[in-house]
């Protein structure tokens, strides 16, 4: 079955950078559209970024210009490069996947999540 495993979370200071990684196993990575969501304490989960099978990307307005999503089909991995981090970026970040050309608002497959904490 499809499994997603995230890595790269941690504690950083405001203005610093982190890169999250998410490795997919159990199926052909290139056939999936991938994305990231996040959930802060007491808040609803929100979309962060996505990259489709085609390579097309989409970002939440709150992260546009600071975060970059990319994929490496040879490594079965999607990345989220997060620059100029702010305290309000603190959340559990989860990788998600949908098989096919569309990344939906309720992806079928989810990783376990990784904590990102940004101190001021």
Structural summary, described in words:
With 120 residues, the protein is mainly beta. 0% of the residues lie in helices and 52% in strands.
Summarize the structure.
With 120 residues, the protein is mostly beta strands.
Q: For the CA atoms, what is the radius of gyration?
A: 13 Å
- pLDDT average, as an integer? 97
Q: Label the structural class.
A: mainly beta
Shape descriptor: globular
* Beginning-to-end CA distance, first to last residue: 40 Å
Q: Assign a percent range to the helix content.
A: under 10%
Helix-strand layout with pairing:
Blueprint: E1 3-7, E2 10-13, E3 18-25, E4 32-39, E5 46-51, E6 57-59, E7 67-72, E8 77-82, E9 91-99, E10 109-110, E11 114-119
Parallel strand pairs: 2-11
Antiparallel strand pairs: 1-3, 3-8, 4-5, 4-9, 5-6, 7-8, 9-10, 9-11
